[in-house]
Amino acid sequence: MTPTPVGMRCPECAKPATRTRAVQLGAGEPRVTVAIIIACVIAFLGSGTFDIDGGRGSTLYQEGALAGWLVHNGEYWRLVTSAFLHSGLLHIGFNMYLLWILGRQLELVLGSARFATLYGTALLWGSFGALVQTTVSPVVGASGAVFGLMGATAIELYRRGYDPFSGGIGALLLLNLVISFLPGFNIAFGGHIGGLIGGVLAALALDAGQRYRRPWLSYALCAALSLAAVAGAVIVSGNPHDFSIG
Q: What domains sit in the chain, N to C, each tagged with a CATH number?
């Protein structure tokens, strides 16, 4: 027996009552996250200009940037390549920092294959959203996909019983959304919103496959979401418009 303030208790009863929650990691290393960062850095270095506003005049930028009239003419690869290009040091630095912070955590929880599926879906929805905003101005950057990671992180936290807005992710998401609409920054807010929607939908799709113990369902739903984003992007690309904030 063990003496306690309330009397004598057996050793088992005297142990502190604690609740533990086991988290099963899906991957040992964030390989996909690192690969995406390396690809973005190589693309930026390939632009040949490394100043604050560098890269816009390079051949790589011209051939890969998201431009509505070129997507309409059949250059569909721009829906993907634009997310690996950046317009300057601040642009790529900020995006890669957030990608590392969010991607590393999500990939370790979801696993590399599921994370890659999530990222790809959010990327395409970001391109779709950017074209909904403008088909006149070229758009580049991984921020659409990064916003998708923010949305997916919020969904994952909520699914595990936590309030996403009680911690840093909620504040980070709201802050970046506000910055997206500030005049003078020339930010493709449509890509941010599109990526956020795509990330949330992809996270729900992945959760559905896990909940019903049908892994193929997660990939099938994300594939359907990706096809919908591509179809939407192709449709809106043929309509010249620009809702950018000056």
A: 28-237 (1.20.1540.10)
**DSSP class per residue in the chain:** -EEETTEEE-HHHHS----------S-SS-HHHHHHHHHHHHHHHHTS--STTTTTTSHHHHHHSB-HHHHHTT-TTHHHHGGG--SSHHHHHHHHHHHHHHHHHHHHHH-HHHHHHHHHHHHHHHHHHHHHHBSSS-B--SHHHHHHHHHHHHHHHHHTT--GGGSHHHHHHHHHHHHHT-TTS---HHHHHHHHHHHHHHHHHHHHHHHTT-HHHHHHHHHHHHHHHHHHHHHHHTS--B----
Our answer to whether residue 47 is catalytic in this structure is no
Task: Check 91, 192, 226, 237 and give the catalytic one.
Answer: 192
- In this prediction, residue 20 carries a pLDDT of 39
Q: In this predicted model, what pLDDT tens digit does every residue of 193-206 receive, in sequence order?
A: 999 999 999 999 99
Active-site annotation holder among 58, 127, 143, 180: 143
Tens of pLDDT, residues 61-84: 889 999 999 999 999 999 999 999
